[in-house]
Amino acid sequence: MRNKVCLTLEDANKIVAACKAEAAKNKWNVTVAVVDDGGYLVQLERIDGAPAQSALIATCKAQTAAATRTPTKTLEDIVKERPATVAFPGRVAVQGGLPIMHQGECVGGVGVSGAKSHEDEQVAGAGLKALA
Fold first, then answer.
1. Which of 1, 33, 39, 61 has a C-alpha 20 to 30 A away from that of 99?
2. Fold of 9-129
3. What stretches in the chain show pLDDT beneath 70?
């Protein structure tokens, strides 16, 4: 047997707090979603003024990043060269989702939606830095 590293609620709280701080600093109204390695929500926060649909989009970005163990921007770039990949089930190929890696393993994903895609990724990145 091996021991499995898992994302905790405390970890998710740190990620969301750092994401909210980055979003507030830039006056971006976004939703932040954190999922575990199975893609299940650990935490979801929608900042006042964030679009309603951003809750679903942020969650899908986080789930995609966790499932593929890669930033959703990478998938977005792949779609440009291979458009058929956009039809892969359960994936959102839009920048703003990042995998949460620990000791070389993916333990979850963070997704952000509500600002421009590169800004969403900037907010998600700030969340990951809080765990480093």
1. 1
2. Beta-Lactamase (3.30.450)
3. none
